[in-house]
Amino acid sequence: MSGCSFTEEALWPSLTGESPTGSRAAARPAVAAAPEPISRAALPQPQLGSGEFQPSGVTSGPATGTFVGDKVGELRGELTRLQGNISQHNRLLQELRAKIVQDSQRYHGTVAAINSRLQVGTTPGNPILVQQLTGAQAELARISANVGEMNKLATGVGSDSTMSAYLSETARSTFAISGAVDEDHRQLAILEDEVNRTAVLIDRLLKEVSDDVRRQTAYVATERGNLNLLTTGVKSGEIYGASLVNQAMAANAFPRTATAAPGADLASRRPLVTVRFDRPDVAYQQALYNAVSRVLERQPGATFDLVAVAPTAGGPARVALNTTQSRRHAEGVLRSLVDMGLPADRIAVSGRTSDTARENEVHLYLR
Fold first, then answer.
1. Burial class of 10 by CB neighbour count within 10 A (0 to 12, 13 to 18, 19+)
2. pTM value?
3. Rg (CA), the chain
4. How many angstroms from the chain centroid is the CA of residue 49?
5. Cα–Cα distances in Å, from 248 out to 19, 295, 342?
6. Of 147, 187, 276, 325, which one's alpha carbon is 20 to 30 angstroms from that of 30?
7. Residues of CATH 3.30.1330.60 domain(s) within the chain?
């Protein structure tokens, strides 16, 4: 890959040994010096909750013929309906969990098969891998749909929680109604205890459903990024690894340090990656991924400057043409980085001319 070289500023030594301003004759092919791609297994699916939420039932009692006794009967019927809703929601939760596990197993099996084929080498755009990739996307979509159903379930359980609060408050206020007999208050006390136990069960159910939704939503979002990168790998016949977003997201745990303004004094610095577009279809993606991935492993909050460099030789018209072409090349590199999972807000794009460049180049700097 003679058109692409990369270095690691203050992080690791140059892999090519060339000067960024040296001649083309001194440049060595980066493909021979670039490290082998690191295969990273897909992140395991977050564990789903395992709780079962079966109500204990409602205790019946004899009719007393009083107004309070009739009120207790009404509350008992409402509690029975509420517990029936809880049983239905628990059954739906267990079904959704089973579906997510099955879909996840198929998804990871498909992704593993694609990565295994890419690891040993294959042709760009292999139709077998394209078909498997389509299957993986469909399986992830099914997981996402199940998570959406689980989110609807959380809304239903929230309504149950509101109903249990109403029954608890009504049971307490019924004690103050005059005209009750001792049996009414005995049944009312039992009913109040059962309402409170039901409320606790609903709170546990709502917590587990909410935790499942939160974890699985984050998991699906991460896997979408991994699939985007896997799509790039299938198109090029190369294996990259996990999406860069997995490393970039870790920046939330690290305070960002002050950095220079975008484009500040870049001409005097050595780029992290240099892509020379001296021929059509320069295969720079693997080297680009390796360089950025290693930076993010050490500096999860890193930001980058992407600079389109145009040569000044050939007169004003030629310079204008080179400037336009180098800008388009930079846009292509930017799209590649975004496809690899690097957030677009981590990259500042700019352009400049150079009297030492022999062809259009794109430089990536660690800011």
1. exposed
2. 0.63
3. 31
4. 20
5. 29, 10, 7
6. 325
7. 4-37+245-366
Cβ–Cβ under 8 Å, residues 113 and 160: no
Give the confidence band of 362 by pLDDT, cuts at 50, 70, 90. very high
Strands 273-276 and 304-311: unpaired
First to last CA, the chain: 25
Q: Report the candidate in 185, 265, 245, 183 with the shortest Cα–Cα distance to residue 43.
A: 245
- In Å, the largest CA–CA distance within the chain is 105
Rounded Cα distance between 299 and 302, Å, is 5
pLDDT in tens, 146-180: 999 999 999 999 999 999 999 999 999 999 998 88
Contact indicator for 276, 3 with CB cutoff of 8 Å: yes
Structure tokens at 244: 């860069």
So what CATH class is 4-37+245-366?
alpha beta
* Strand 304-311 with 347-354, pairing: parallel
Distance CA 70, CA 116 (A): 69
Query: Which tokens in the block code for residue 361?
Result: 């180049």
Angstrom distances, CA of residue 151 to CA of 70, 146, 155, 209, 307:
38, 9, 7, 8, 44
286-310 confidence digits (pLDDT tens) = 888 888 888 888 888 888 999 999 8
Give the span between the Cα atoms of 329 and 358, in whole angstroms: 15
Note the pLDDT tens digit of each residue in 40-67. 444 556 677 777 888 888 888 888 889 9
